[in-house]
User: Fold this.
Amino acid sequence: MLRNFTGILLTVVRPLSSYLDKASWLVLFLMMFYTVIDVLALKVAGYSLLGTVEMTALMMVICVFFSFAQTGLEDGHIRVDFVYNRMGERAQTICDFITQALCTLLFGFIGWSSILNGLEKYESSEISMDLLLPLYPFAFVASVGCCLIAVILFIKTLLVLDKVINL
Assistant:
């Protein structure tokens, strides 16, 4: 039953995380292009583009948080397995369950906090210093990325729970 539920969730989460990951690639390319233009402007014309550091930081928010979910689906996050590999299968499974559950809670809380932060930034009309861009969309980008990875971690927690039950 858990496998059916997680399968249904994955049919929604996989395409969404893939789309967001590809969007992060595009933003990374644009960030690279923007940086090259800035360096060329500095070398050729002797001036830098206004807000380059600010724009790079805001674009980095998109790159990082939109790629979380796909990395989680591909099991691309760092895992320290020095001690883990020396454990038995049951201990590894229990360790996986605890880790996945804690990470689900952590990213769920970060996602929720980012939503609250975005609402706060929206209500106060907070903007960036140089480019005067509103900051609330970037807080919502962080919340989308964190909530999506929390859902993926929740799915993985359920799959590990199913494995623990069947051991």
Notes: The two ends are 16 Å apart (CA to CA). The helical segments are 2-44, 52-73, 89-124, 136-166.
